[in-house]
Amino acid sequence: MKYFSLIKTAAFSAILVTAMAFSCQDHHVPDPDPISNCNRVDGTPRALPCEFEVTRVEFFKTNTKQIIETIDAQHLQGELIRGNAARVQPLTGHDGEVFIVFNTKVYVKRIANSPSTDWNKYRIAQFKLGKHPEHGDVIDLPIQWRNDLAYFQEISSWAVGETKTFETQVAFESYPEENIDIYCPIINYNAWEMLVAPPYNYELVRDVAEATLKYKVQMRLQ
After folding, report:
1. Where in the sequence is the signal peptide annotated (predicted)?
2. Which of 18, 55, 92, 163 is deepest in the core (most CB within 10 A)?
3. Closest CA relative to residue 19, chosen from 129, 140, 152, 115
């Protein structure tokens, strides 16, 4: 049995961004006591309330809508088969290595309003921290984490309690690694801009994200 690890390179930044396709999934009565704050990686409270909760990630077989794996709070360990990938392509500059790309759908529920009505540009990306987790999601270190508006989608209406879905992709590399930790954050463009500037000076994507779902995946050949 061979396993594969999630890609974490600047060259693959385009695949890590959301496919910019979303839909309204359901409407709920707002939670009576929505989460008003959340913690940073170091355990200290985040300066702004967290807007969202990532509730589910679905993996699809090839380029169909057949669900082959579902990740949620009750099931945070997934298993994938290479033959179910949407595509497999050579990894530039690495003989014999390949990208293994899966189509996914991410479910995001709003649990609190944004600080301002015009703070409505969002992005979802899925990543792993790699061999050096202290550098894995440092802002501006890898190219894909620069706060480029081209990677964000404006969503003008999103009520508290409402869930929307985003179509994304997750890419893996073909060198062995078991039980890969994957992070799925949703980011507010304006909150990012505020939190990376003084006096906050946040440095990690996980700290500026409005929500992050951490889960594990094993990959096998068949």
Report:
1. 1-21
2. 18
3. 152
Q: What is the pLDDT along the chain (222 residues), one digit of tens a residue?
A: 443 334 333 333 333 434 445 555 544 434 433 444 689 999 999 999 999 999 999 999 999 999 999 999 999 999 999 999 999 988 777 777 888 899 999 999 999 999 999 999 999 988 887 655 555 688 765 555 667 888 899 998 999 999 999 999 998 876 556 678 899 999 999 999 999 999 999 999 999 999 999 999 998 876
Task: Please answer whether residues 179 and 101 qualify as being in contact, where contact means their C-beta atoms are separated by less than 8 angstroms.
Answer: no
DSSP symbol at 79: E
| Strand pairing report for 211-220 and 77-81 | parallel
Across the chain, the runs of DSSP E, i.e. the strands, are 5-6, 22-26, 52-60, 67-72, 77-81, 87-90, 98-110, 121-124, 153-154, 163-173, 180-188, 211-220
| Rounded Cα distance, 34 and 99, in Å | 39
